[in-house]
Amino acid sequence: TAGASSISDSSAIVESMESNPDGGCHIYRNGYYRNGISVVEGILEVNIIQMTSIQTTESQAGNSLVDFVVTCQGSLPTDVCTVVSDPTCQMSKSVVCDPIIISDECLLTIRRAFEEPGTYCINITLGDDTSQALTSALISVNGGEST
């Protein structure tokens, strides 16, 4: 509505709207406003502290399993995502996300399967409702071993 304005009961808050040539309206509000801000501690840091190849049986010979032991600082995560990419970290080969429950200390083991030997870039992201933190590593998978 062009030229409409109103004055509020409490204090001198003036609200006006005017037509805009681009078809929309702009609302101008003058006065005092209050809002609350909550500061939350997020997940501050993620580290891979150990990578261990898991010995597989002959029936599982197609996949190499690797356990990643991960720690974090700050708030406790509620989910973990693992992205396995080519060695340049540019082309994603697989993405796996799982919910997790951590009770008091941020220390978890993530097991991932690699279909064939090779060098991979792995990104591990821990997240909660307010934050995310990422760590990356380059891993070489040689059949039953990884470095």
UniProtKB/TrEMBL annotation:
Gene Ontology MF, one: integrin binding
Residue ranges constituting the PKAT KLD domain according to the UniProt record: 71-121
Entries under InterPro entries matching the protein: PKAT, PKAT_KLD
Single Gene Ontology BP annotation: cell adhesion
Recorded GO CC terms: plasma membrane
PANTHER family: MELANOCYTE PROTEIN PMEL 17-RELATED, TRANSMEMBRANE GLYCOPROTEIN NMB
Protein's UniProt name: QNR71 protein
Native species: Smithornis capensis
